[in-house]
Amino acid sequence: MSGGLDSTTCLAWARQEGFACYALSFDYGQRHSIELEAARRTAEALGAVEHRVAKIDLRVFGHSALTDDIDVPKHRDESAMNAAIPITYVPARNTIFLSFALAWAEVLEAADIIIGVNALDYSGYPDCRPEYIAAYEAMANLATQVGVEGRTKLKIHTPLLHLSKADIVKLGAELGVPFGLTHSCYDPTPAGKPCGACDSCLLRAKGFREAGIADL
Amino acid sequence: MSGGLDSTTCLAWARQEGFACYALSFDYGQRHSIELEAARRTAEALGAVEHRVAKIDLRVFGHSALTDDIDVPKHRDESAMNAAIPITYVPARNTIFLSFALAWAEVLEAADIIIGVNALDYSGYPDCRPEYIAAYEAMANLATQVGVEGRTKLKIHTPLLHLSKADIVKLGAELGVPFGLTHSCYDPTPAGKPCGACDSCLLRAKGFREAGIADL
After folding, report:
1. Can you identify the CATH homologous superfamily of domain A5-60+73-211?
2. In the CATH hierarchy, which top-level class contains the domain B5-211?
3. Cα–Cα distance between A186 and A201 in angstroms, integer?
4. What is the ipTM of this complex?
5. Across all residues in chain A, what is the average pLDDT?
6. Three-class DSSP labels, A58-90
7. What is the C-alpha to C-alpha distance for residues B207 and A53, in angstroms, rounded to an integer?
8. Burial A11-34 (b: 16+ CB within 10 A, else e)
9. What are the domain boundaries of chain B?
10. In Å, how far from its chain's centre is CA A68?
11. Does A129 touch chain B if contact means CB atoms closer than 8 Å?
């Protein structure tokens, strides 16, 4: 739960599907903690049973603009965004995030993990591909007590996997996502205002524009 | 790298295989930090290029005698150890550990991860089974830039997978493992002396006894 558009829409989707939701966020040395505040707000607004923040230090390995002192790229067009794996990529991030979710799922005896990965607008990230998610699910079913004989099969749900950003905005609007509480920017001002120029801001703006919905 | 018998023997094995070794330990809120000191000593003694400690908070989900205020079981016989998943099991621990190793491997552009899991003496842990490791490797090859087209296939090595504790002691002895620098106990005294009664101490003692080698 980053408190962004995608994870918040996922939570709203899961609530509508009837899941009791335990929201998990990560304090992973990202340069801004505004997203943790947004996650707390959106988890509460959408009725999560619980919201926990796991502290993990991804800076120990460095190598990303989201955790290192590397400038976040600005004003890129979409071909530049999709040309290569972006500098904002955090090594093995979804694998690490899913592994913590798996640990909590095991403690809760939960058999469903929901993650807001998207294969269309973030094609540069290897750990957003459908074949990656399928392989993770297969592994997860062997990894824990949830996966041992007689237990429920663990499922990784990816409701946004094949949606465009505009589709996500439309789904979020249908589900009543409080867009104004969400936060997407990779490089906000100290006061928490989005920069409007990083890949995340540009993709969000394009999504709302194409959906014909105002970003409040 | 826990600084125990298994991970230290793995490091010695990897050095003999010709790998340049980057040793990774975890500060995961375990009740004793003596193992991190043992890991530092053994990594240095066996010529690791680098040793890093990643801080992660597994206590956020609780549920294990290694991270919670639950008593470590003592003086159990082997049938009791193998009867059920032990209370010292940390949920999804190997999955989380391997995920951090995968992140570091990606940064280093390394294609080999070595882990000292063992399917014989720890049959109660689901994440020590060969089918789990195979599934993890398949997932890892889809998770990162190491796994994208044209890159080397990532391999997870488990040199101890099918060895008994006695076999591990024999292998360690052949490879010149400095047993005296290693630490295995789940519940050491404040001065760092092993308790001699937890599952880990009992299995270690049995391994040395059956190998006919003195534990110095």
Report:
1. HUPs (3.40.50.620)
2. alpha beta
3. 8
4. 0.84
5. 86
6. HHHCCCCCCCCCCCCCECCCHHHHHHCCCCCCC
7. 41
8. bbbbbeeebebbbbbbebbbebeb
9. 5-211
10. 20
11. yes
